[in-house]
Amino acid sequence: MTSAARQVETAPMTRVAGEALLELRHLTVEYGFGGSRVRAVDGVDLEIRAGEIVGLAGESGCGKTTVANAAMQILRPPAHLTGGSILFQGEDLVGKSVEELRRFRWRNVSMVFQSAMNALNPVMRVGDQFVDTMRAHERIDRRRALRRAAELLELVGIDRSRVRAYPHELSGGMRQRVIIAIALSLNPELLILDEPTTALDVVVQREILQQIEALKRDFGFAVLFITHDLSLLLEFADRIAIMYAGEIVESAPAALLAADPRHPYTQGLLQSFPPLSGPKLPLTGIPGSPPDLRNPPAGCRFHPRCPHCLPERPGLYLRQTAERPRLREIQAGHQVACHLVEEGVA
Amino acid sequence: MSTAAPLEVRNLTKRFPLGGTLHRASVHAVDDVSFELRPGTITALVGESGSGKSTVARLLARLYSPTAGTVLFEGGDLSAVRRRRDVLHYRSHVQIIFQDPFASLNPVKTVRYHLERPLRIHHIVPHDQLEERVHELLQDAGLVPPAEIAAKYPHELSGGQRQRVAIARALAVEPKVVLADEPTSMLDVSIRIGILNLMLKLKEEHEIAFLYVTHDLASARYIADDILVMYAGQIVERGPAEEVLAEPLHPYTRLLLSAAPDSAVGLKATRIEQRRGLAAAAVDPPEGCRFVGRCPLAVAVCSELTPALIEAHPGRAARCHVTAPAPGLSTTPIERKS
């Protein structure tokens, strides 16, 4: 039996691939109170099944990080949950006590934040930071915790002797790996990665992603991968959800999304990454810029930038500019929120 | 298209001294870099963080002075440029665009102010034509309607629009050379292509020689004619962009290429080999190839002798004993380094 299989056996709970692990239902998050509210996340439905990598892609300010923070229940004022439910293995997290949530976090779901490599305590040895995390959540003596820290470091490709290192003795890529190792130290079922490699160079980025993939295979955890880099997700994710202005506008298996994107925003995003191989064609990107969520456009939020929103088609134009499109399944596993698709135009 | 190079860089070297009284160590940020920028051509300078690519751009913009080497502008040596009038002349022909459009514009001044200033300082147009020229520049940079944009303050613009203002400002002096230091990396993905397309349009219409500094190989392939790959302060590969990226000579270029996500391929089967090492400039590097510790092709000579940039095929050069050996140098694999 491989070491991988043994690892899975010692996992706290049996994980059946394909069963819903985290379900966000009509999640709504607002910033601010009273008259000056901004709805940063507006009715997001997202499901992450055991053992899969789900990518959440979108531009800055589209609400993707807010979704992750809401799922972890770590929203801080002025952000607050105003609707929807967060089901983890069928249990709603909304309304749980602080103590219950504390146990849930890190044990069940852990998160690696944007530029997390700066989150390490600079005056504490790496090993002690593992010990702190583990001992905050379970009874474990220091020696055993340090041994586990060394094992985890090895798993992410860092020499085990580095448990004694201080963060400044490690490179940015190594610090990011340490953070990922700490996130895995309590054997969570879901790992949320928020732009885990954005500050890193491409070579280091790929090394880390390969490692996460390998660890995922061995441990069987699921991953919610949040990034603005759709080209990365096309390679790395099983399923991709595209967010725009607080909403999910399309969701599909990665291969299907690459081959047959249906939402004009997804099409535009895919048109924003020049290829490294194949023919060199002029790309268009997307004209305009994302909307101000204090004052989002009526109807479809993408309509001011949509190349298919034309007054020459008055019936459709009226729907596009006045009616919010709903996320609908167009084929198994492929959902789109677009009037064009509904009306069979695109 | 004329082929005379307005800007030529020869053996450019920049060292940043570190502390120490007896043995003064220094970071070799830029080491023996030579290239030229030709009119109507975009030259991409690619490399990872710390490789020295931004330092090259800053040296060319006269923000740093080089430790050694020469920069020739229209045949004249830049280090000889001292008088204010000559500096102004140089600056009116060589402009730089920075990465962060949020920091490069004055928040309390309108767009009009930003564009009028270079026009006044360099006496580009008579007073009564200032407004007309400002509007032309904005239009050129894709900012419409110009009258409306000119009256706005930076905070009223999106990131992409701000970067376009920075580009319009650089163009105001009708430069021959534009140094663009990661001009899209702080922008949202959906508007990056717009900036790249603008650079393509400007190179065509104004015959500008662009230096495009980036870490993004895919965008370099999209807009650049030529490509320079930097590793630890040195140029390790040089050639036409399409050729270099289709068939890289240097093992480092190969590594970079295999690590970069490719939107055309989707799921990539290639897995990169993990050999630790940094692309960052080294402190007093020893003789030998700087990539040797990570190189799958390394032979004995690689750790003994620093390879020179050798032209292996017409137009294609690399700093590698194995793939671009110097004539007469024996690089038969003596013993494989682990």
How would you describe what is shown here?
The complex is a heterodimer of chains A (346) and B (338). Chain A is α/β, with parallel strands linked by helices and 346 residues long. In chain A, the strands form two sheets. Chain A has an eight-stranded mixed β-sheet, sandwiched between helices. In chain A, helix 4 packs across helix 5, helix 5 packs across helix 6 and helix 6 runs parallel beside helix 7. Chain A is globular. Helices cover 28% and strands 21% of the residues of chain B. In chain B, the strands form two sheets. Chain B has an eight-stranded mixed β-sheet, with helices on both faces. Chain B has a four-stranded antiparallel β-sheet with strand order 2-1-4-5, with helices on one face. In chain B, helix 3 crosses helix 4.
Quick description:
The complex is a heterodimer of chains A (346) and B (338). Chain A is of the alpha/beta class and 346 residues long.
**Beta-strand percentage of chain A?**
15-25%
Order of helices and strands of chain A: HEEEHEEHEHHHEHEHEEHHHEEH
Structural class designation of chain A:
alpha/beta
- Shape annotation of chain B: globular
- Principal-axes shape call of chain A: globular
Q: Helicity range of the residues of chain A?
A: 25-40%
Q: Largest sheet of chain A, if any?
A: 8 strands, mixed
DSSP summary, beta strand count of chain B:
12
Rg of chain B is 21 Å
The major β-sheet of chain B equals: 8 strands, mixed
- Please identify the oligomeric state: heterodimer
pLDDT averaged over residues of chain A = 87
How much beta of chain B, percentage-wise?
15-25%
Can you count the helices of chain A?
A: 12
Strand order of the largest sheet of chain A: 6-7-8-3-9-10-12-11
Query: Largest sheet of chain B, order of strands side by side?
Result: 6-7-8-3-9-10-12-11
Q: What is the tally of helical segments of chain B?
A: 10
Taking the alpha carbons of the first and last residues of chain B, their distance comes to: 49 Å
